[in-house]
Design brief:
With 410 residues, this protein is of the alpha/beta class. The protein contains 13 helices and 12 strands.
Length: 410
């Protein structure tokens, strides 16, 4: 269906809402004016749930003065199970002992098939995030994929405002509508205690049949100017509420014909340099908090490694050519494109050598392994101990991460 300027949401007549892995969002029919009004009312209603504050903050075990162990812990962001924190939950030890730098929240648990993971209601989520922050010695990145539409962990099902996909906002091409939608999202995240949105997607929609981007309406447009304008509106709206954002998926996943969650994806024949344009423009505008890498292989850029593991792509292209000096976050290191082709420790080494600052492990793919954060931290320590990675390289990432965290607005 062609998305007209007067229609923001479309009703899927006679069909259940589409599901994308652990994500399900209802679609509604709504005019632009009604959408803006409903978004404001939804955010205001959600603000009635400030959550509760647990009691006294537990003393963190991680040192206040950053040593090597703490710096390494800051380089890992991981998913976990639980609607609340209790003693014995592995994430508690990860925060207290390993100085885990960030967590990722999900509504559903894919390995078990459970509809319950970390999110049940606004009040519950606020309490969970407060508990997480109180356990961390340093400010904790609490991240979520809240792109909108089908990729939204916070849904009306759990009491959160409805959202709209980037593709539909891009088709409307009304930056004010995008700003309003993004402000509703940002206010929702702030009230919940979530300080990092793993969005917006700035991939170009060059292949509408793309099984992981186009299919789920995750791209604003095939036009880089439209993508840039709307992404900038999203970023500025989040910053107004003190929430950080993440551009993804560098250097561009929009032309792919495969899904890197499932395995090796080669975009050598389909990727075009124009896919760099939104990244370049947003970097020049000084609007990038963090950038997430794609696990795609592109022999045009590196004949040996996928982007996440490629020094040519991360350091050579993103940092040196495009001038990005901020935090680089990997896409989920447990995805098939990486996990099926590289041993765990090898992938850690290659990502750090490539220039990645934060290794992300959703722990929400094929299997759940509570030891994953500990394994990642141990692998990085071994790399430093063996001299494979210089401690100065760890310092570089630590400085970038702490600079990013200093920009959290609440």
């Amino acid at each position: 269906m062609v998305i007209g300027r007067q229609t923001v949401y479309h009703k899927l007549a006679g069909k259940a809402p589409e599901r994308h892995n652990d994500r399900m969002s209802p679609t509604l029919q709504l005019t632009r004016r009604a959408f803006l009004s409903a978004g404001a009312r939804g955010a205001a209603a959600f603000a009635l749930f400030p959550g509760w504050l647990p009691g006294r903050r537990p003393a963190p075990v991680c040192p206040t003065a950053a040593g090597l162990d703490e710096k390494i812990g800051q380089m890992v962001l991981a998913g976990f199970r639980g609607l609340e924190l209790v003693e014995g939950n592995p994430v508690v030890a990860d925060l207290r002992r390993r100085c885990l730098g960030g967590v990722a929240l999900f509504d559903r648990d894919l390995p078990s098939g459970s509809p319950v993971r970390n999110i049940a209601s606004p009040a519950q989520l606020s309490a969970l995030d407060t508990s997480l922050s109180r356990l961390a010695a340093e400010p904790l990145l609490i991240g979520i994929d809240q792109e909108g539409g089908q990729v939204a962990r916070l849904s009306p099902e759990h009491g959160f405002p409805p959202s709209i996909s980037q593709q539909r906002l891009g088709a409307l091409d009304d930056v004010e509508a995008t700003r309003q939608a993004a402000e509703t999202t940002a206010q929702t995240l702030r009230v919940a205690g979530i300080n990092l949105n793993l969005a917006p997607v700035v991939d170009l929609n060059l292949n509408p049949a793309n099984p992981i981007i186009g299919r789920y309406e995750r791209s604003f447009s095939a036009d880089p100017d439209i993508v840039t304008r709307h992404a900038l509106a999203v970023i500025r709206a989040h910053h107004r509420y003190g929430v950080l954002t993440t551009l993804k998926h560098f250097p561009g996943h929009g032309s792919s014909q495969g899904d890197s969650h499932l395995g090796f994806v080669d975009v050598t024949a389909t990727w075009r340099p124009v896919e760099l344009q939104p990244f370049r423009a947003l970097i020049r505008a000084g609007s990038c908090d963090a950038i997430m890498t794609a696990h795609i292989f592109n022999a045009q850029l590196d004949p040996d490694f996928p982007a996440t593991l490629s020094r040519r792509t991360v350091t050579g292209l993103l940092r040196e050519q495009l001038g990005f000096g901020g935090v680089v976050i990997s896409d989920d290191m447990g995805m098939g494109a990486i996990a099926d082709n590289y041993p765990f420790e090898t992938a850690v080494r290659l990502a750090i050598e490539a220039g990645v600052d934060i290794l992300a492990y959703s722990n929400n793919g094929r299997v759940f392994d509570p030891a994953v954060p500990a394994r990642a931290v141990a692998a990085i320590k071994d790399l430093v101990a063996s001299g494979t990675v210089d401690e100065g390289r760890i310092d570089q990432s630590y400085r970038r991460i702490m600079r990013l965290k200093s920009a959290i607005g609440f």
